[in-house]
Amino acid sequence: MAAYGLGATNRRLTGHGSAPGFRFTLYAIVSIVVMVLDQRGGWLNQARFLLQAAAYPLQLAVSSPSAAWAWIKETTQSREALRAENTRLRLRESELALRALNYEALAKENAQLRGLSHALPPIADRWLIGEIVNVELTTLRQRLLLNRGTTNGVFEGQAVLDGWGLLGQTIHTGPWSTEVILVTDPEHAVPVQIERTGLRTIAVGAGNEGTLALPYLPANADVKVGDLLITSGLGGVFPAGYPVARVAEVHRDAIQPLAQVRAVPLARIDRDREVALVWFKDERTNNPDIQPQPTPAQPKTPATSAAAPQGAAAAAPTVPAKATPPPAAATPPAAAPVKAKAAPPPKTPPKAAPEDEAEDAVK
Amino acid sequence: MNARMREPRGRLFLTILLALFLSVVPLPAWLDDVRPAFLVLTVLYWSIAAPRAGGIAVGWISGLALDIFQGSVLGQHALALSLVTYIAVREHQKIRSKPVFQQSLIVMGEIFIYEFIVFAIDGWTGHTLYGPLHWLQILTSAAIWPIAAALLGRSHAPR
């Protein structure tokens, strides 16, 4: 072929018949060693970290076409459209502010009822908004790349949310970028709970359809279309109580022992441009609010049933949500608060009163 | 030594970077499955046209880069790509003397080997990187080979 213009240089290669074979063997061995190391135990995390840093500029370049398209769309938007969006956002903002007020009051009331004013259910402590740099939504891989990395304090296995629900968790972190595995990725599973009944199960990603499957529910499980799935907090990665998905389809087959249930995630996976990386209060080991609590709580006899799960949660701060949420959110709440209610007033009488006032003021 | 100076290393690097870009740029799902393996094609081209310029090292490093971008097990694409590079480097004179159509067929075989290794390692590691439709890219890659080779040839042929 005329295109290959370097025949002269290559003629010398004929003498080196064995060299490429030897070199290939070398590279093959290196590849296999690297694969084994990467697969078992993740000894290559440091190398991956560095390589991810090196790859980031090209990843930015790869995302530039879609970023440019978004920019063009944004800058050419008409004034009316922007104004309409503005009013819509303002309405939503005031609505959310009201809801936040209400929420604080409810959180206080809840804590007071349970007598656990220092062990509120895990609340987002710190947020970091990350911009989506690159999206990979293929049949078998649902990943995002964010423009935040360990220099921003991001760690592996961190929960990622958007304004509507749970989005996923971080898997590979680089200094300036983070790969996020979405809840819809087939390799991802999230422990969930049906909000209506408290039934716990696991939601597995179903890939390209953008749905979640609940493959471990027996055929007679109480699940209906429209049920809200929230995180159960088991597993320790996600805190309890965050919305994940809504059940869209329940199929019961007489010959199959398990029900086929599909759920649609609430997070707007294909429309988001910014997402939130979240730090939860009791995921931090240096939280002074939680550590001292178990010692005074244990000797107290009347509130044992309420204090026990809390003590367990505080004793293991790395897996915080494991013990507390299920008993609280499931059916027994009627019993627990009644017992707890008797306990807190003698414990902190001055503190309870202003809280009551605050609630009344909001209502 | 003299010949070494003429190796098109700079163009090799640039075209491989471009091919990597094309290989990882996000596309809609239906297009993603038929996207030709640009990186493999480029590496194959250089290992046939200038086997001394890079050789197997180029294949290995490009494969590792692909591993990072795709988040796969490190070494997966590196192994697959270094194997096909090795075959191409070893047989470069035979491949080079064939007409373009036959070259396409050889490239098809090479990309099949490549895909098969990636697929096999997927099975070993328990990940699933690609769906069954992904095998279509063997055909599209073979189809685009004459164009790719002509473009790449233009990029470095002596004027």
Please give a quick description of this structure.
The complex is a heterodimer of chains A (363) and B (159). Chain A is an alpha+beta fold. Chain A has helices spanning 7-10, 19-39, 45-75, 79-114, 294-297, 304-315, 325-329, 335-342, 344-347, 349-362; strands spanning 124-137, 142-146, 159-161, 166-173, 178-182, 189-194, 200-205, 212-213, 228-231, 243-251, 260-265, 274-280.
Annotation keywords:
heterodimer; A: 363 residues; alpha+beta; 6-stranded antiparallel barrel; globular; B: 159 residues; mainly alpha; Arp2/3 complex 21 kDa subunit ARPC3; disordered N terminus
Radius of gyration of chain B: 15 Å
Please give the alpha-carbon distance between the first and last residues of chain A.
84 Å
CATH architecture of chain B: Orthogonal Bundle
Multimeric state of these chains? heterodimer
Taking the sheet with the most strands of chain A, its summary is: 6 strands, antiparallel, barrel
Number of helices of chain B: 9
Shape of chain B: globular
The coarse silhouette of chain A is: globular
Count interface residues per chain for the largest interface: A-B, 55 and 62 residues
End-to-end distance of chain B:
22 Å
- The level of helicity of chain A is 25-40%
What fraction of residues of chain B sit in β-strands? Answer: under 5%
What this model shows, in words?
The complex is a heterodimer of chains A (363) and B (159). With 363 residues, chain A is α+β, with helices and mostly antiparallel strands. Chain A has a domain at 21-63. Helix content of chain A is 38%, strand content 21%. Chain A has 10 helices and 12 strands. In chain A, strands 1-2-5-4-3-12 form a 6-stranded antiparallel beta barrel. The model of chain A is unreliable at 1-17 and 283-363 (pLDDT under 50). Chain B has a single domain (9-156), classed as Arp2/3 complex 21 kDa subunit ARPC3. The model of chain B is unreliable at 1-5 (pLDDT under 50). In chain B, helix 2 (9-24) packs parallel to helix 5 (56-70), helix 4 (38-49) runs antiparallel to helix 5 (56-70) and helix 4 (38-49) packs across helix 9 (136-156). Chain B is built from 9 helices and no strands.
